TrEMBL record:
Pfam families: Glrx-like. It comes from Hyella patelloides LEGE 07179. InterPro entries: Glutaredoxin-like, Glutaredoxin-like_YDR286C, Thioredoxin-like_sf. Signal peptide: none annotated. SUPFAM superfamilies: Thioredoxin-like. This is Glutaredoxin 2. PANTHER family: GLUTAREDOXIN-LIKE PROTEIN C5ORF63 HOMOLOG. It comes from the Bacteria.
Length: 86
């Protein structure tokens, strides 16, 4: 399973979500971090939304709900359980 985190340098919310994702033990996934400042399409789509977490599917990406920056790792795992396509 692959997750994609749209981020940009210096984004503290992005860094916080990335740290929480690293602590998730319940799911085995590869995390790809995409810097939106390196791609105009990503920048235009996500410049006001980051961090954005998506699940990469065969032919598309499925956006996952935005998690509160104050959410715990357990809450992140619960969100993943509810919304991931496994």
């Amino acid at each position: 399973m692959q997750l994609i985190l749209y981020s940009k340098p210096g984004c503290h919310l992005c860094e916080g979500l990335q740290e929480k994702l690293a602590q998730v033990a319940k799911y085995d996934f590869d995390l790809e971090i995409r810097d939106i400042t390196t791609n105009d399409e990503w920048f235009n789509a996500y410049q006001y939304e980051i961090p954005v977490l998506t699940q990469k599917l065969d032919t598309a990406e499925k956006p996952l709900p935005r998690l509160s920056p104050r959410a715990s790792v357990k809450q992140l795992e619960q969100m993943l359980q509810k919304y991931l396509v496994i």
